[in-house]
Design a protein that fits this description.
The chain has about 140 residues and is an alpha+beta fold. It has a single domain (about 5-120), classed as Elongation Factor Tu (Ef-tu), domain 3 (Beta Barrel). Helix content is about 20%, strand content about 35%. The chain has helices at about 15-20, 25-30, 60-65, 115-120, and strands spanning about 5-10, 45, 55-60, 80-85, 90-95, 105-110, 125-130. It has a 6-stranded antiparallel barrel. Strand 4 and strand 5 (about 90-95) form a beta hairpin. It is globular and about 35 Å long. The mean pLDDT is about 90. This is Riboflavin kinase domain-containing protein. One of its GO terms (molecular function) is nucleotide binding. Keywords: Flavoprotein, FMN, Nucleotide-binding, Transferase.
Length: about 140
């Protein structure tokens, strides 16, 4: 398990819920998560420091076979993705866009549960995650 990354929950633009509900996207993320289904939507986390972790997977819209982000992030070619343990107990994926203006300290978290509900999170609340190779 990697070192802890910590940050504050931030409001997003709301694009991920609809896009992650698309069957090819849902199936692709589930495959990367080792068969674990991810709840549609992501939680934006603004880290205390720029993100320097290694995200071993890279996915393009061509890989998914469907338009996911070109309408709102036209400079993005793909997403880097890695597995993570969030708040010490929830399995999820860390996602980062590769567009030039993607904030160095931002990650998006896809998870097996709705983190805002399960942890009672509001914008500004602190959250941590650790990158993992697999979920055991």
């Amino acid at each position: 398990m990697g070192p802890a990354h910590r940050g504050r929950v931030a409001a997003g633009r709301g694009f991920a819920s609809d896009r992650m509900a698309l069957e090819p996207v849902h199936q692709g993320l589930q495959a990367l998560a080792g068969g674990i289904g991810m709840v549609p939507g992501t939680l934006n986390l603004l880290l205390d420091l720029p993100f320097v972790g290694f995200l071993p997977f890279y996915v393009t819209e061509a890989d998914l076979g469907v338009t996911v982000w070109t309408d709102h992030a036209p400079a993005r070619k793909g997403l880097s993705i890695g597995r993570a343990l969030i708040a010490g107990r929830y399995r999820g994926l860390i996602l980062r866009g590769d567009e030039p203006d993607y904030p160095a300290n931002q990650v998006e978290i896809a998870c097996e549960v709705r983190l805002r509900e399960h942890l009672g999170l509001a914008d500004g609340d602190r959250l941590d995650f650790r990158l993992v190779d697999s979920f055991r």
